[in-house]
Amino acid sequence: MKLEVKNIVMITFFSVVLGTMLSTPLKQEVEDYDMVTLSSIDSLKTEVESLKVEVDVMEKSIEDKKEKLEEKKALEGKDDATLIKSIESEIDSIKQISGVHPVEGPGIRLLIADNASEEIVGQNINDDIIHDSDIQTILNDLKRAGAEAISINGQRVVSKSEVKCGGPVIKINKRSSANPFVISVIGDPKSLVASVEGKGTYGDMLKNVYKIKVEVEEKEKVFIPGYEFEDFRYLYAQSKKEEESN
């Protein structure tokens, strides 16, 4: 009898414990993950590529400055007229690099326009129109191919230029530009054409996969205007000698 009572007590005890465990909600810690879209991935890839191009430009600028330094050392002891001529030449070179002066030279004329055909690529209408990321990627490819000066619909592209979507248009230097987009480029025509039309390039994909209109024409003379805005100045950055930064 005592054994039966003991068994009943034990069974009751385990039943209570088991019931408590089953009735208590199990909490599982789940990490929060941000949603990653294809659009955000493409945007980040474009930004990374743009930064790589900027790094290449900066490295080239460093090499140019080293050459200029050697030239200045060679001018030590020269007469004033020689020094003035050297300074004027350097100022003119800086203006050309900054994009302030209009320039002319051999290059290409690139026309990019939305897919105007009846054939719709995919199920998303956005695949048939030009976006700011498309223009930026093309610009990166042109810079890698040695582009020395670029303009889009008459707007000079400089280091401060922004290419952003603004509704149905794209804003370049804060000015609206509508489809089609005419990109004028100065540089080696063959290299520039290859960077846009070569198999596997972004321009080739736009043309043959998404049916975007991409037309390239080599030109003996391409005119590119200077940067027009008056805000081409730094508000916070100040000039500082290299030895002062240490």
TrEMBL record:
Pfam families: DUF881. Keywords: Coiled coil. The keyword Coiled coil applies. The keyword Coiled coil applies. InterPro entries: DUF881 (IPR010273). Signal peptide: none annotated. Residues 41-78 form a coiled coil. Belongs to the UPF0749 family. This is Division initiation protein. It comes from Andreesenia angusta.
